[in-house]
Amino acid sequence: MEAIEEGGMAIYHLSVKPVSRGEGRSAAAAAAYRSAGRVHDQTSGQTFDYSRKRGVEQAGIVLPAAAAQRDPAGRDVHWASDREALWNAAERAEKRSNARVAREYELALPHELTKTQRLALVRAFAAEIADRHGVAVDFAIHAPHRAGDERNHHAHLLATTRVIEPGGLGGKAPLEWSDTNRRKAGLGPAKEEILALRARWAVLANEQLLGQGHSIRLDHRSLAARGIEREPGSHLGPAVSGMERRGIETEVRRRLDREALGAAQRRIERAAALGAVEREARALAVSVIDLSSNLAAARRERDRMLSRLPARSLEELQRRGASAGSHPGSIKGPSRDASRAL
């Protein structure tokens, strides 16, 4: 998840993945782990206590600004500022065994920024998600792992899949609707929303970098979209990075080396195929030139032979050509019909 400089361009990383019961995951457990906190899950009866976990620089919950007003009963949305209350409400709201109880965003943070600047950047992005979709966003900023890359500042954002309302959670946020229901509501596919968020993260990060006088920039587009012929990089993770720093060979590294070798072989094969196409094109061009030259020479020879014929012989050839289907008067001097007769 590094945001490291590469020719003036930082490596962009933003992944979006569901927290689903169908995969055996719990929003309460994820929130406790990400924030290095303690959350009791009233649905399962389990208590997830990660308060001794190290490396969490900052954690907090951002609520949608539009939901801040009180309802007629005097209730507001500040109940959702309590992590345990928020994620227990999320767990209770879902009845299906394969329900999606949260959506997680994982971000690489530019290491050029200070701790305070990274916090401001993450809060700004969390607020955009909250306001755009009407959900609560529980964020946690993690410092680089002590055994990994020291530039690997990153953040985890857990968003509710339901809108925040005074006194509880409402219906599913539009981002969670099926594309059919989104289309009925005049909305585009959900994947377009994700692409828009990816682009927005790059804009916010670049604004922060520019404001702090850094020339490095993030680009959310793929390598192919940027016209860069290079295989996307793979992240080793802090544990593997730490083992490699100690000189320990890992299966992950061996796998990545095999993948890199395969990618290199594919590039060689593509280059060879391109070279073959270029050679065929050049050979075809030469053949066309040769054909044109031969045709021009044949025409000159035809004209030379016709010029030597007596007038009566030439008229006989023209007559034969006309009777074979040529248009009268179409022959002016040495003609196509005469050449056919020859």
UniProtKB/TrEMBL annotation:
Pfam families: MobA_MobL (PF03389). Transmembrane segments: none annotated. Residues 309-342 are annotated as: Disordered. Residues 25-246 form the MobA/MobL protein domain. Keywords: Conjugation. This is MobA/MobL protein. It comes from mine drainage metagenome.
